[in-house]
User: Fold this.
Amino acid sequence: MHQLLLNRDIYTDFLQNRVPLAKRFLWISTADLKDLHVETDEGFQPFLAVLASLVERGVAVRLIHAKEPGPRFRADFDEYRALIESELFERVLCPRVHTKAIVIDGAQAFVGSANLTGAGMGSKNEYRRNFEAGFLFDDKDHIKQLMAWIDDLYLGEYCHDCQRREYCPDPIIENLP
Assistant:
């Protein structure tokens, strides 16, 4: 499968219909992170509720983002104990991250221009959302390469040679020589 997703399709075809079906793990990399809401069987709720539900079902969730989220996101985050207490939820901040990618179970991935925001993912009103594009794919070699790159980023492999350390509010690797 190699499918182009544009605008609202990113939300309906991927975020709403595929992400909640993750069984083993979900990795998310985004530059911007806001109070994204999604429609579920219970109505609209924060995307954080979807992530918390996955964690409660035993799905490991890894979130990498470039800057601190806004106050509404932070307030919502505090409502989901699974995201705070479970070792299955991991989060790191790296101000150099600009990649927008989501990997589900190592079997399918989305890479595109959309940040993890309502306007980016297409959940907002059609006259308020961004114009975004991306690709959904299941090519095992490409997913393997993407996952290796995300894993290196998550583990702080790029911290050793980073020349933007002074702008990093929460270094992945604390004590560098």
